[in-house]
């Protein structure tokens, strides 16, 4: 057993090494495919980390977070379609819309418990999807596209995936810093109390409803940013890629796999799931055959079957095994 | 008159919704596990019916029980192979496990059968009859009435038989049930079997008048979630009332506003009920 001080220093060294590796790795990876996968990992980590504030720290399992993702994605591309704005200029409007929506629907929805909350969030996201699909002014079932040719650097239209990697990574870093700060502040204690036993927390004077709402608002804002950045990168969004239920579930799965309610859990989960999806996709070909998702689904089933607690469980089992071996 | 027709059609479809939602509510109420693959179970049953009809030339009187048995086995298998282990973990693990299962079922079907829409012959059960000005499609009428009877049958099984009492005892309090000599594991496996068998019958019945595609499960699952929430978790009578209501509302919305908006009204109603009456229509406070 190391002394506490060494362990503390060790953790900082480790953290610095990880950040350095994250900053530098795209420079060593020549292959554009893997650079793209890296960018997508950052994006998935961003939305999963945003979800983590509500679903992980506050313990309110939202399966409709795609509502805010879609608002962000559509705001940035509709800004272009309607007014020829650079996609990223729509992002603040996406955030504003998401916050407004979160404020309006969050009040009654956050009062719901357990599965009821999850189901209400699904219904909200599906409502948005159906409405957008049937509103020609919002692009309808076809969706909306961004600028075909980049007009200035503001369009955020790059051939190389690397700029996206760093942009997504920067926003993710901001979010993780906030999460880290929040977790040590009063709010972190309140949210943990709410997750543990909301009724007990309330009886001790924790303003549960208000703090759940704070977490929901911040989470909605960041999810919306993720959506806007995604739309700027792809230059296209349709009802399924903006508001599809699969996206909501992917946020949940990434966080659950890496560890919900931990700082780096969603990043770790995304770093496993996204390459898994992209590589199976490349190996077995999209082409509508569906074999990608069979493999992807099977691996998720496998993980939940043998390690329902996610990677944290695997890690603690590994440590227990090492401790036993060390005797 | 046309309104009566619309309500009747909605009622008949609603009965089928009630049947497969009863399966979900049974599982959900008994062990607080949400089965995200429930809609895909219905989809699998539709394909079982289709294969039984086209390859084995079985009529509905045989392929419906066949689908029920196949799905019963699938349910028991899923319980012992996956759910029993997933229940050890947090609620998130259930989402991971059952959603992964949904992906596997959905996309394996897509891989094998492609995304083409399939359907059974339209007048498998005979020609359309007219009665008192109402157009009666035999497939819909049979499906609706059979589903209604089976949902009521499931309720009877749970409330009037010793087996049902044992199932409910495990649902009520697992340890107390063990104390009086009920082993929870077989009971929970049975609940999964029964729940899946409900989707088996419902799927085979829907296949009589609905298109068959690998993606049909997603929208059916959402309907089942809404029905179960409205009816209250674990309540079969609740699911029956909610299922019929949803069927009629969908039908009326399609008629008055347009088919694309039928789910909009259903979801808005669902949210309104959740926001103002969170314990469900028939649930206990």
Principal-axes geometry of chain B comes out as globular
CATH architecture classification of chain B: Orthogonal Bundle
Q: Output the CATH class name of chain B.
A: Mainly Alpha
Please state the structural category of chain B: mainly alpha
User: What structural class results from the helix and strand content of chain A?
Assistant: mainly alpha
Overall shape of chain A: globular
**Could you state the oligomeric state of the chains shown?**
heterodimer
Characteristic terms for this protein:
heterodimer; A: 327 residues; mainly alpha; two-stranded antiparallel ribbon; 14 helices; 2 strands; B: 285 residues; ABC transporter involved in vitamin B12 uptake, BtuC; two-stranded antiparallel sheet; 11 helices; 2% strand
Detailed description of the structure:
The complex is a heterodimer of chains A (327) and B (285). With 327 residues, chain A is mainly alpha-helical. Chain A has a domain of 214 residues. Chain A is built from 14 helices and 2 strands, in the order αααααβααααβααααα. Chain A has a two-stranded antiparallel sheet with strand order 1-2. The longest helix of chain A is centred in the last third of the chain and has 27 residues. The radius of gyration of chain A is 20 Å and the shape is globular. Chain B has one domain: ABC transporter involved in vitamin B12 uptake, BtuC (Orthogonal Bundle). Chain B has 11 helices and 2 strands. In chain B, strands 1-2 form a two-stranded antiparallel sheet. In chain B, β1 and β2 form a beta hairpin. Chain B is globular. The mean pLDDT of chain B is 88. Chains A and B meet through α5, α11 and α13 of A and α3, α4, α9 and α11 of B.
């Amino acid at each position: 057993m190391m002394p506490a001080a060494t362990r503390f220093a060790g953790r900082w060294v480790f953290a610095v090494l990880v950040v350095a590796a994250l900053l530098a790795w795209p420079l060593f990876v020549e292959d554009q495919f893997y650079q793209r996968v890296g960018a997508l990992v950052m994006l998935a980590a961003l939305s999963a980390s945003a979800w983590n504030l509500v679903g992980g720290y506050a313990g309110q399992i939202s399966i409709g977070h795609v509502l805010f993702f879609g608002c962000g994605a559509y705001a940035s591309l509709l800004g272009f379609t309607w007014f020829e704005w650079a996609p990223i200029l729509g992002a603040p409007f996406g955030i504003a819309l998401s916050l407004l929506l979160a404020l309006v629907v969050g009040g009654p929805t956050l009062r719901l418990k357990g599965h009821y909350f999850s189901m209400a969030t699904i219904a909200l996201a599906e409502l948005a999807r159906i409405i957008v699909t049937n509103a020609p002014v919002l692009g309808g079932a076809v969706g909306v596209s961004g600028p075909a040719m980049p007009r200035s650097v503001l369009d955020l239209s790059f051939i190389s995936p690397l700029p996206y990697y760093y942009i997504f990574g920067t926003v993710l870093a901001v979010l993780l810093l906030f999460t880290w700060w929040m977790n040590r502040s009063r709010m972190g204690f309140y949210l943990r109390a709410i997750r543990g036993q909301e009724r007990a927390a309330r009886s001790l004077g924790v303003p549960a409803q208000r703090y759940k709402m704070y977490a929901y608002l911040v989470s909605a804002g960041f999810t919306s940013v993720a959506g806007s950045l995604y739309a700027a990168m792809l230059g296209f969004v349709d009802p399924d890629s903006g508001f599809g239920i699969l996206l909501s579930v992917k946020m949940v799965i990434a966080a659950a796999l890496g560890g919900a309610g931990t700082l780096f859990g969603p990043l770790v989960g995304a770093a496993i799931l996204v390459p898994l999806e992209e590589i199976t996709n490349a190996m077995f070909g999209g082409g509508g055959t569906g074999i990608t998702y069979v493999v992807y689904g099977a691996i998720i089933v496998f993980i939940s079957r043998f390690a329902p607690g996610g990677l944290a469980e695997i890690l603690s089992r590994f440590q227990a095994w090492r401790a036993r071996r060390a005797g | 008159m046309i309104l009566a027709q619309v309500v009747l059609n909605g009622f008949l479809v609603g009965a089928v919704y009630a049947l497969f939602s009863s399966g979900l509510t049974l599982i959900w109420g008994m062990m607080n596990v949400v089965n995200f693959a429930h809609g895909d179970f219905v989809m699998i049953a539709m394909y079982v019916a289709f294969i039984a009809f086209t390859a084995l030339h079985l009529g509905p009187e045989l392929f419906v029980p066949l689908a029920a048995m196949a799905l019963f086995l699938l349910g028991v298998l899923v319980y012992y192979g996956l759910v029993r282990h997933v229940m050890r973990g947090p609620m998130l693990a259930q989402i991971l496990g059952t959603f992964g299962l949904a992906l596997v079922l959905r996309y394996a079907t897509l891989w094998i059968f492609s995304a083409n829409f399939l359907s059974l012959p339209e007048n498998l059960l005979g020609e359309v009859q007219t009665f008192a000005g109402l157009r009666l499609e035999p497939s819909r009428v049979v499906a609706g009435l059979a589903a209604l009877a089976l949902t009521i049958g499931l309720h009877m099984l749970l409330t009037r038989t010793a087996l049902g009492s044992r199932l409910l005892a495990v649902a009520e309090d697992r340890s107390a049930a063990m104390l009086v000599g009920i082993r929870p594991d077989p009971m929970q496996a049975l609940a999964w079997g029964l729940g899946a068998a409900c989707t088996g019958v419902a799927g085979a019945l829907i296949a009589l008048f609905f298109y068959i595609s690998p993606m049909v499960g997603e929208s059916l699952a959402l309907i089942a979630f809404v029905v179960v929430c409205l009816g209250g978790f674990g309540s079969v009578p609740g699911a029956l009332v909610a299922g019929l209501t949803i069927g009629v509302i969908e039908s009326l919305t399609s008629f008055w506003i347009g088919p694309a908006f039928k789910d909009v009204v259903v979801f808005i109603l669902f949210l309104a009920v959740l926001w103002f009456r969170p314990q469900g229509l028939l649930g206990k406070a």
